[in-house]
Specification:
The protein is of the alpha+beta class. The protein has four helices and six strands.
């Protein structure tokens, strides 16, 4: 598959279950960050607001939310218990999407982090 040029193009190439899960995630991110700009970053759909905010994608085995920040994952370790996480990534099954309230809190934390970094 060629590299996607837009989030819509990326999502259109996915199997239906992953597309549905990531479209819901996209809507939740948009609601949490209405001023963020959508883009493609590292061949994945992403949002920017005062720098990279979050991205999302799918692999053969899972979907993922990329927080583009290890400190946000660490700060929300308790809320993320039970999810497969790494430094800046939360992986989840398409049929078990991340709760909207959790995504909202994570995106808001990333917005605040970017603001702090921007304002020094």
């Amino acid at each position: 598959m060629p590299r996607p040029t837009s989030p819509d193009e990326y999502l259109a190439a996915l199997p239906q279950d992953k597309r549905d899960a990531l479209e819901q995630l996209r809507r939740t991110i948009r609601a949490a960050a209405p001023r963020a700009e959508e883009c493609i970053s590292y061949s994945l759909p992403a949002f920017r607001q005062n720098g990279p905010l979050v991205g999302y994608g799918a692999t053969a085995k899972h979907c993922a939310l990329y927080l583009m920040s290890g400190s946000t994952v660490d700060a929300h370790r308790d809320a993320l218990a039970g999810y497969d996480t790494s430094k800046g990534t939360i992986r989840f099954a398409a049929d078990k999407p991340l709760p909207d309230a959790l995504v909202h809190a994570l995106v808001q934390a990333r917005i605040a982090e970017n603001e702090r970094l921007r304002n020094g």
